[in-house]
Amino acid sequence: MSTDEPKPRDLFHVFSTMDVGGAQVRFAKLANKFDIPFRNLLFATDQRYESVNLLLPHVDREVQEIDFGKGQTLRNLLLFRRTLNKLNPDVLVTYNWGAIEWAMANFGRNCPHVHVVDGFGPEEADGQLARRVWFRRLALWPHTTTVVPSQTLYDIVTRIWRLPAKNVAYIPNGIDCTRFGLPRDPALAQQYGLDDDNLVIGTVAALRPEKNLIRLIDAFSKTVASGRKAKLLIVGDGQERPGLEDHAKRLGLADRVVFTGYIADPSALLALCDIFALSSDTEQMPIGVLEAMATRLPVAAVDVGDVRNMVSDENRPFIVARDTDALANVLSTFLDDDTLRQDIGRANHTRVEATYSESEMVAAWARIFSAG
């Protein structure tokens, strides 16, 4: 590095996991796009680092080896504080509840702290746990910058957690729309057994409990029970996959539900779909919905997080309660009406292109990481 080049700022990122998920994919996307020199120190409490493979070669990264014991709060706080003193990062970046102890360990240190809230696990799908609310208030107030990607989260953080609004930044997720809307690849369709006789309902998700893909498979089962020709394409992998595959078999859908496993870039698979579906118990601003909109797909989804406000006006009547029958009715409506699917798909593309810019997202995050 020449003497004229600025010294990279050290960002110490703490995740509960760096297995592939929405927050991890966004981190990789940001790191790959930043034109500001950042050195990324990475730690995942479960020691899983699959998403590090999404980083391009030019990204400065270093995985940290830290031996700690789960459930040993006091010991961990002391260990984490010693680690922070040793690394002395320019900014500590913690992600979601699983990293909250690091926020406590940073208390009183002269180190800027950014806490990222992307959503909640199944234990908080229906409401906030009081104990966690109080812990968050203590750990994050008043000097932390808390970043949220959804208006729903902004309301929770400022109204329920009571964090000062001046310390909360709303940065919606964004995507590069030019990567989507690819022509349908017949060879790829054949690879996954998707023929021209069946419309394709697709979803992209980490296969975790809160995604409630049982609900989607059940809704799909009801949709095709009357003879509609369709297949369900589930793009993603995770702990729930064996149970989901067994559930599809029990319903007699083994030849209609296709599991692809993890796919780093789902754009070509989305191009095989006619409808995008989302069945989660909890979401905030799912990137998969944005990618589906960029692919000109209608979205059949349950009403969670900001999903209703993300999609076009034309699509909003098809965002329904977290109910299997309601989701099945939307899927059936879309399957039965080619014109409706195409009109809503075009409206979704117009909205995502105008509203959810990747470049604006990258610039906003760069300002956050540079401000400390």
Can you put this structure into words, describing what you see?
By secondary structure, this protein is α/β, with parallel strands linked by helices. Helix content is 38%, strand content 16%. The protein is built from 14 helices and 13 strands. The strands form 2 sheets. A 7-stranded parallel sheet has the order 3-2-1-4-5-6-7, sandwiched between helices. Helix 7 (213-224) crosses helix 12. The longest helix has 18 residues, at 338-355. The chain starts with 8 loop residues before the first strand and ends with a helix. The model has no long low-confidence stretch (mean pLDDT 94).
CATH arch. level architecture of the largest domain: 3-Layer(aba) Sandwich
Hey, roughly how much beta strand do the residues contain? 15-25%
Strand order of the largest sheet: 3-2-1-4-5-6-7
In total, the number of strands is 13
Termini gap: 23 Å
CATH level-4 homologous superfamily of the largest domain: Glycogen Phosphorylase B
Main pleated-sheet profile: 7 strands, parallel
| Helical run tally | 14
| Shape designation | globular
What percentage of residues falls in helices of 4 or more residues?
A: 25-40%
Keywords:
372 residues; alpha/beta; Rossmann fold; 2 domains; 6-stranded parallel beta sheet; 14 helices; 16% strand; globular
Q: In a few lines, what is going on in this structure?
A:
The protein has two domains: 9-174 and 358-370, Rossmann fold (3-Layer(aba) Sandwich); 177-355, Rossmann fold (3-Layer(aba) Sandwich), CATH 3.40.50.2000. It contains 14 helices and 13 strands.
Task: Please render the helix and strand layout as text.
Blueprint: E1 9-15, H1 22-33, E2 38-44, E3 60-63, H2 73-87, E4 91-95, H3 100-105, E5 113-116, H4 130-140, E6 145-148, H5 151-160, E7 168-170, H6 186-191, E8 199-204, H7 213-224, E9 230-235, H8 241-250, E10 257-261, H9 267-270, E11 275-278, H10 287-294, E12 299-302, H11 307-310, E13 319-320, H12 324-336, H13 338-355, H14 358-370
Parallel strand pairs: 1-2, 1-4, 2-3, 4-5, 5-6, 6-7, 8-9, 8-11, 9-10, 11-12, 12-13
Helix pairs in contact: 7-12, 10-13
